[in-house]
Amino acid sequence: LSVLGASDRALIRDLGLSLDEALIRGVSVRDTGWRLAPDSLRAVWKQELESIDNSLMTIGSEANQIDPGLERSVGTTCGSVAHALDRLELRVLRALMARRGVSAARLSELSSLLRPGNRLQERTFSLPEFLVRHGCSLTDRMLELEPWPVDCHGILTVDEEASRRDSVLG
Q: 150 vs 1, 29, 154, CA distance in Å?
């Protein structure tokens, strides 16, 4: 059972995902950014990456014909370019998400809630731990569940404001 606040659930909805999709696929910066990207960016990015890849292959082939000893240098250069393009892609996607009001930090927090270590996990907490974190509103919501999800991973949404008010530590 995963416990999500209403704002977490709203963010998942705003990203155009269902809760099932978010659990199964996760909410990475790359996937989310490309989901929010305009079609024109997707098309240009794909086309230009293929062009760069072809150019590097051509340059590498010519360099290796001149001196086969350059093969390692060509491989290192191709790796460096690929790494730089990967970093640029993430920066572009983060900027795109920020424009839509989604921070990478918030996405990372949500991802950890849904899929700790980027894997579905079953975690066991005692009732006092849940009460400390979510207050009495959690137990009220748990009692409303009919039937209990026993053969699948369930998601329970709690009222964050009520959780803060009712929390044992709050």
A: 9, 31, 8
